[in-house]
What does this fold into?
Amino acid sequence: MLRYILRRLLWAIPTLLLVTFVVYCALRIATNPLASYARSNPRLAKQPAKMAQYIEVNGLWDGPGGYVRGYLKWLTGFVTGDWQPSIKGSRPVWPNLKDALVNSVRLGLVASAVGILVGLTLGVFAALRPGKLRDTVVNTGALIGFSVQPFISAVLLQLLLSVQWSKWFGEPLLPTSGMYPPGHKGFDLFLMLKYMAMPVIVVSIQSVAAYSRYMRASLLDVLSSDYLRTARAKGISERRVLVTHALRNALVPIVTLAALDIGLVVGGLIISEGVFEYPGMGMFFLTAQSNGDFPELMPWMVVITSSVIVFNLLADLAYAWLDPRIRLD
Amino acid sequence: MTDTTASTASDASIGVLTESISPRRMALKRYMNNRAAVVSAVVLLVIVLFVALAPFTTRYGINESIYDAEEAPNQFLTPFGKAWFGTDGNGRDLYSRIIFGARVSLLIGLFTGLISVAIGTVVGAFAGLKGGRLDDLIMRMTDIALALPFLVVLVIARGVLENVSWATSVIGESTSVRFTVILLAVFGWMGVARLVRGQVKQLKEREFVEAARALGATTPRIMFRHLLPNAVGQIMVALTLAVVGAITAEATLSFFGWGPDAGSGMTSLGLLIRDSKKAVPPGYWWLVVFPGVFFVILSLCINFIGDGLRDAVDPKMQQEVK
It folds into this structure.
């Protein structure tokens, strides 16, 4: 097991290097950092000496060889903690990135928890009576949930719970955007939850749909297995058959899916964060992208790529740990 | 068909007498028994007819306001007899614009879906049949691309395609429909390739493929005469997924302003939904509700059709339930 983990972690390094190199080249072409820099500093752009200096300091050389050299320069800077400041405003990148990461993880964990709990409950509820009314309702509901894209549910909810609500009842039920009211300082759990409610609903509509379908399929699979018949034949109560035998086994594939899902949360809530102007990783990406801010985008990509790789590994480990039939080697 | 025997054998094994009914007829019958899927197909057909007959079904031109400016105020009118879904900030009829928008979205979905399925089927079938190192490489690549958040991948790829000057002549400006279709197809084939690969990997172990090989059939012949015809059902399912994925991706890109541009006098569902964002604070509810609900109905129909197709071509899942 330990050898397997070590080998996977060792494999993660070349994967990460390869992905970051591809991303480096793609972002160099896509954002054109030199042009962004010239746009943000129109005065410096007129001085060729300053621009040449910027190219040298940041390794923004042209040509295939220049990209490789530039990547190596970026990589050494990144690893030694010598990060380039952002183009817009020339601020250090890490403090903002860290705040965005914390906010996103907070939103993502709450949304995942809601999505998983509600989704699994509905899935079990449906699978216990396959083909009956409740099964049809949950299944149809899940398909509807899949079709309600986050940007649609987000604007509809904003319209209903904020704008129309304040027309009907005087004040909005939930605020439309942000994480705190403008100018708010410090930590306030109640306010935070209030501001988080709509993004969480929007994200969990899709995850409830996904988890209820996974859970239903997984539980149905287990319910038709031979060992469950044996468990029943042993004469133990139906409740114990379900809880200790069926549910536990049905959850095994769900755990891996959840791990992969949570790995994506770190960078994957772009739509909801964008609509609700929630200051997380998604918002960070949107702002940096619109500014063509290469020095901000690279660390962001490294963070989300590593999280995907790490949670992929965790998913495999969880699978092997929960299902002893799986051998890792 | 040379290979119906295999399918009928599996049908017989689930206890259905299939002497005189072809597998295709059986799949059709199973599909017709799925009420939601049939209703969705009818609704989708109606939508497609409305869109195809746009000159007759729309009431105003795409950029035409319902009144002349001098005649009466025409901005932000709530739904009424002259404009069923109300009007937008330029006094244009929302009902007509939804039909015009759906035309662009459906075209993008269909073309992207077809290109993705064409590429994905060839790559997936090849990878599944050959196996080995190439298979590993392709699947590892798609794994990584599919593991990252799709919006990020699309946005970066869009930036790259936009800035490669020699490519512009082939794929068009970044605001054109052609560009969007190509951008979405560049990643759309990966999901299809995985589905087809899985199916081919299963099928190639079956006896009829072995028999064909024993008779001396060449690899392309096995692929096109034996493997792919048997995977047609799965490919159809993949097509519905690709189409709905492309329509959604177009809407998502447009929502953030990365999609095809409205400046050329056209619109799409994504652009209408993007406009609806601005209609939220003043409370113009019709501009938010109608495009959004229409989009949900459209993707719901395609999802239901895909679900029905999957159950129809792969009845094993259903059978286990009963």
Notes: Chain A touches chain B through 48 residues (CB under 8 Å). Residues 86 and 295 of chain A are 5 Å apart (CA to CA). Chain A is about 80% helix and 0% strand.
